[in-house]
Amino acid sequence: MNIQERLLKFVTWTNWVLFLLITCLSFFMTAKDFAYGILCGGLIVTINFHLLHRSLKKALTPPNICSHNVLLGKYYFRFMISGLILFILISQHFVNPLGLFIGLSIVVISIILATINELKKLIFKEA
C-alpha cells in the first residue's frame, strides 16, 4: 500500500472515529444545541469529504476521465448547498455556532493526525 492510499484510509477512518467520539462526549457533557452543532458540522464535513473523494476518484480513473469544469461545477454545487445548510442552521438558531465550528474541524483534525502519524513513521524509520 502506497503512502497516498494509507493516508486516505487513515483520514477516512479517523474522521468517523473522531466524529462519533466527539459527538457522543458532547451529548453527555454539554448543552444540547452545542452537541447538535458538533453533530451537524461533523456530518456536513465528513459527507462532503467522502463525496469529494468519490468525485475525484471517478473523474481521474482512466476510462471515465472528465473535464475539470465538470469537477469544479460539482465542487461548487456542494459548496453552495453546504453554505445554505450552514446559513439555515445558524440563522434559525438550531445549533450553537461554536459547536458547529468544532464539528466542521473534524476533517482538519484527522488530516493533522495523519500527518503526525506519517512523520512519526518516517522519523523512526530513519533512526
Brief overview, please?
The protein has 127 residues and is an all-alpha fold.
Account of the 3D structure:
The protein has helices at 3-29, 32-60, 68-91, 97-104, 106-126. The mean pLDDT is 90. The chain is mainly α. The chain is 86% helix and 0% strand. It has one domain. The longest helix is centred in the middle third of the chain and has 29 residues, at 32-60.
Question: What order do the helices and strands follow?
Answer: HHHHH
Number of helical stretches of at least 4 residues: 5
Total of domains? 1
**Rounded mean pLDDT score:** 90
Q: What kind of sheet is the major sheet? A: none
Oligomeric category: single chain
Radius of gyration: 17 Å
Number of E strands: 0
Span between termini: 22 Å
Shape designation: flat
Beta-sheet strand percentage?
Answer: under 5%
Could you name the ranges where pLDDT drops below 50 across 5 or more consecutive residues?
A: none
Secondary structure class reads mainly alpha
Helices, strands, pairings?
Elements: H1 3-29, H2 32-60, H3 68-91, H4 97-104, H5 106-126
Helix pairs in contact: 1-2, 1-5, 2-3, 2-4
Main attributes?
127 residues; mainly alpha; 86% helix
